[in-house]
Amino acid sequence: MTLNRLLITSCLSLLMASCGIGNVPPAPTMLDLGSPLNQTPIDTASKAPLGVAPVTAVGTLQSQKVIWRIGQNGQPNAYATVRWTATPAVMVRERLFDRLSRQAPVLTVEVNAEMAQVRTNLLQFEQVFSADGQTSDGVITLQVVLVANNQVLDQFRVTRSVKAQDNTAEGGSQALRVATDEAVNQIAQWIAKVR
């Protein structure tokens, strides 16, 4: 009798354990922006240094979630099985730092109050689907302020939208890669004019 109970208990334990194995979710797919598309070096020896502050971001972009929505005014959603390798703000700052360093020496901190500093707020970084779900775009919006001597020199807002090759998260990430490079190029050109 005791042996039967022991066998039944063991079988039930094994059955319950095997059921739990099938419920473990797979590891998320990790996405990033890849290498910058254009890395042409620019002579920076005679240029004044520029500070690039950490990029701030709106609430939905403060995690590694990959955000999508239907239409510009649609509700933001996150893919369940896909994540960015870093937060969008970190990836955008890396891109901005790389691009600006090709036209002036770039520092992560202000050396003195006179040094110009770029302060950037990431307002949008997501895959936006058309209302019928047939197409999608990678969309980025950045608000940039150039500051020196505790005064605002100028500000600039840029939005770039690039059509995704397909409607997957991977297609959206590739579109965001191109859109981000286009946006940081516009910011670099604006800074060159303002300074």
Describe this structure in words.
The protein is an alpha/beta fold and 195 residues long. It has one domain (28-194): ABC-type transport auxiliary lipoprotein component (Rossmann fold, 3-Layer(aba) Sandwich). It is built from three helices and nine strands, in the order αβββββαββββα. The chain has helices at residues 2-21, 88-100, 169-194; strands at residues 29-31, 50-52, 56-57, 65-70, 77-84, 106-107, 116-129, 136-148, 151-163. Strands 1, 2, 3, 4, 5, 6, 7, 8 and 9 form a nine-stranded mixed beta sheet that branches. Strand 4 (65-70) and strand 5 (77-84) form a beta hairpin. Helix 2 (88-100) crosses helix 3 (169-194). The longest helix is centred in the last third of the chain and has 26 residues, at 169-194. It is elongated, with a radius of gyration of 24 Å. Mean pLDDT is 87; it is low at 14-18.
Spans of at least 5 consecutive residues whose pLDDT stays below 50 are 14-18
Mean pLDDT across the residues is: 87
Shape estimate: elongated
Structural class: alpha/beta
Radius of gyration: 24 Å
The CATH topology name reads Rossmann fold
- CATH class equals Alpha Beta
The CATH homologous superfamily is called ABC-type transport auxiliary lipoprotein component
> How many DSSP E strands?
9
Cα(first) to Cα(last) distance is 89 Å
CATH A-level architecture:
3-Layer(aba) Sandwich
Tally of separate helices: 3
List the helices and strands and how they pair.
Layout: H1 2-21, E1 29-31, E2 50-52, E3 56-57, E4 65-70, E5 77-84, H2 88-100, E6 106-107, E7 116-129, E8 136-148, E9 151-163, H3 169-194
Parallel strand pairs: 1-5, 2-6, 2-7, 3-7, 4-7
Antiparallel strand pairs: 4-5, 7-8, 8-9
